[in-house]
Amino acid sequence: MENAEIPDYPTKADLDEFDWDDCSKCSGDGLRDVGCADCQGTGVINSLEGDESDCNTCGGDGTVEEECDECDGTGKIKPSEDEEPTEEQIGDWQSEVEDATTIVDESPV
Ligand SMILES: [Zn+2]
Ligand SMILES: [Zn+2]
Fold it and tell me: Taking ligand 2, which is a single-atom ion, which protein residues have CB atoms under 5 Å away?
């Protein structure tokens, strides 16, 4: 029997990016609200004259959005190579294996 091209057994790391788990740190947003450093989270800047004005850095919100360092702003966490594949992945893999072996069976010798 000819050697069939058996595809590698999948791991969860083979998943397409949109199937990755959401980052728990930013709930999948890729951004986190952090306190504005310029106004200490108050949203207001006090001038030397005692006037209050909206903080330009955060637009007066007191928070700024920062790229999540856990997921580099993607909102998704790449699964580990060690993680078991999903049932869907196994199903796809099994049909790929079947296709591969079927082609070999049908090919003329
Ligand atoms: Zn601010
Ligand atoms: Zn994140």
Answer: 23, 25-26, 68, 70-71
**Count of H-run helices and E-run strands, the chain:** 1, 6
- Hey, is 105 helix, strand or coil? helix
Residue 109 belongs to what domain range? 1-20+78-109
Q: Is residue 83 part of a domain?
A: yes
Task: Tell me if 30 is assigned to some domain.
Answer: no
Per-residue pLDDT tens digits for 86-100: 999 999 999 999 998
- Say which ligand is closest to the CA of 40: 1
Ligand with minimal distance to 34 CA: 1
The CA-based angle 26-29-80, given to 5 degrees, is: 65
Render pLDDT for 38-76 as a digit per residue (tens, 0 to 9): 999 999 999 889 899 999 999 999 999 999 999 999 999
Number of domains in the chain: 1
Q: How far is the centre of ligand 1, averaged over its atoms, from the C-alpha of 25 (Å)?
A: 22
